[in-house]
Prior knowledge:
The protein is of the alpha+beta class. The protein has one helix at residues 2-49; strands at residues 51-54, 58-60, 63-71, 78-87, 107-109, 117-121, 124-125, 131-133, 136-142, 147-151, 157-167, 170-179.
Amino acid sequence: MASVAASEFILVIAALIIGLVLFGFTEAVIIPQYAFTLAEQQARTLSTATFVSISPPEIGTSGYSYVVYPYIPGFKGNVSIFIFEEPQSLLPSIAVLTPRSSSPSFTASYPGGKSLSEVTVGPVYDTNGHELASSLTAYTVPANTPFVINGTLPKNYALIIWIIYNSGNYYFRIAYAYTTG
């Protein structure tokens, strides 16, 4: 009688341990992967509707100024903006082009002159889940709000602008645009 109770107790303990291991595996692997996949799907949906308009450059004493308008119909949140320059010869591979520096090479402000807030984002993924950058210092701006980029663009270089969307602490480049000045 005592040996039957002991073996049943051991079976109950073994079942509890197996259950805890499965629960831990679910918490550690499956749920984060599901969260990433859901965030990726949201980013992909937004990317299909996102449009970025860049004005022709205005040349001033401090270099070039561009007005940029990231338009995402129906979206009311903030997006992050990362600005960098690359040689024009690299433009054929712009979809996979990544910045050489994690800091923006141009400054950004609202049309009235107030500077945009800087924020650190990363890692940044494309809408297919491939990591593009581990960490970037970007500007944050409400979607559907124009802003001004100021700086000097070297000859034969292109100005590249990434629109980065945050979903569940995952950052996705949902759009990019460029101008050659």
